[in-house]
Amino acid sequence: MLTEVIQAADDDMNAAVERAVSLLLDGDVVALPTETVYGLAADAFSPAAIAKIFASKERPLFDPLIVHIASRRDLASVAQVPESIASVVAQLADAFWPGPLTMILPKSDAIPDLVTSGLATVAVRQSAHPVMRAVGKKLGRPLAAPSANRFGRISPTSASAVLKELDGKIPLIIDAGACSQGLESTIISIEPREGKKPIFRLHRAGPITKEQLQEFGKVEKPVLGDLHQPHAPGQLASHYAPRTPFFLIEHAQDFRPEPGKKYGLLCYRGNPADPHVACHDWAQMEALSPGTGKLAEAAVRLFYSMRLLDEAGLDAIIAEPVSETGLGVAIMDRLRRAAHDFSPPA
Length: 346
Ligand code: AMP
Ligand code: MG
Description:
This protein is about 30% helix and about 20% strand. By secondary structure, it is α/β, with parallel strands linked by helices. The protein has two domains: about 5-175, DHBP synthase; about 245-340, Threonylcarbamoyl-AMP synthase, C-terminal domain (Rossmann fold), CATH 3.40.50.11030. The strands form three sheets. It has a nine-stranded mixed β-sheet, with helices on both faces. Strand 13 (about 265), helix 9 (about 275-280) and strand 14 form a beta-alpha-beta unit. The longest helix is centred in the last third of the chain and has 16 residues, at about 295-310. The protein is globular and about 60 Å long. About 45% of the residues are buried. The structure holds adenosine monophosphate (AMP) and magnesium ion (MG).
């Protein structure tokens, strides 16, 4: 299969949107930009189209997909929001939609089991990206769209990264440049409490931080054996993983290079005085936020920088931790899961 790439210019994306919609109506998959990472989209109501997402990504069927709605009104077609959480769902949607917050809600009958991997819940969000929104609106149906990478690999934050992952496996990529957030959406489920703010279970840390969510409820870890919890990939050892062995080293003095090996460093600011930068003569170094260091910039550049190092022919990549506050929580989550010696939380 030939993979076509169409540019969506800021001032004219009609041709790109029309081509995408026509393929989606035919039951095909299309890679589309979102504000988080590029997604591989298909008609969320069509099991045959959904099956193509799993096939082209080589994604195991136990890993459920996120469903994107084009407008708030469409929520009722994909989820059955219980009365007990209706008002907090509305508050969260007012505050964070369109945007990178995914809510896990009881699914509607129209959503095929394939989308949710047999779970009774569906993960829903409304993307803020103009291309994703325009395609969803024109199609008039919700889109299931996981990240447009092969399973377990680094998420794509540009059309060229999607091409490297899925060239020849999908018919179309819409190129709208680099993603503005660069990290996958925050995922929560919601538990109502009598007379108190609800509990939000944080299934995946992301661009909407714990601090932002705390205004509306109490943020906690998912409980083991939770009905909402898929047997799955967030928890799998190798996720967001470069092909090159990748190690997160907390303290620079713990790095013991083997003679003759080429090491690359993924660091925060790249300041020559920082211990991780100073402790070795790195074959290649990528700073997530050169200069003063800003977590928002580091988030945007994380997967791109991991790809650059992965393509550099190194023997291993060493990553420097970032501070685990605000967006740093999501960045550290991705670094840990990408790491060679990561073991999932018990
Ligand atoms: P991706 O779109 O590739 O970032 O992957 C979607 C993520 O959403 C996966 O980590 C899934 O485990 C998670 N997810 C999707 N649906 C559900 C659900 N119903 N319950 C819990 N997690 C979900
Ligand atoms: Mg993914």
